[in-house]
Design goal:
Helix content is about 60%, strand content about 15%. By secondary structure, it is of the alpha+beta class. The two termini are about 25 Å apart.
Length: about 100
């Protein structure tokens, strides 16, 4: 029975973490600042901003590549942030190695 109570606590913590991940936002920008991407900890994209001058200063292929690289960078940062949060949760719940903790 105590095991069931512990599982319920862990489920509650996981739901809370999911909500927190949705609120966590990381930002990545292209080296020249022409593209900025915000990604959430739940691996969704919040926004993509393209500087107006980028639309006239580069061709579509170059801009597309820049957007792709910046989105990938934002997603990588979001994954790392989420992994850190999940590792903390796992440690506090006694799940340690399940999410990369000790």
């Amino acid at each position: 029975m105590a095991n069931m109570v512990e599982m319920m606590k862990q489920m509650k913590q996981l739901k809370k973490m999911q909500k927190e991940l949705k609120r966590k936002v990381v930002t990545a920008a292209s080296p020249d600042g022409a593209v900025t991407v915000e990604a959430r900890g739940d691996m969704s994209i919040k926004s993509v901003e393209i500087a107006p001058e980028a639309l006239t200063s580069m061709d579509a292929k170059r801009l597309s590549d820049m957007v792709t690289r910046t989105v990938n960078s934002a997603m990588d940062s979001a994954k790392k942030a989420a992994a850190g949060d999940m590792s903390k949760l796992a440690g506090s719940a006694g799940l340690g190695s399940m999410f990369g903790g000790q």
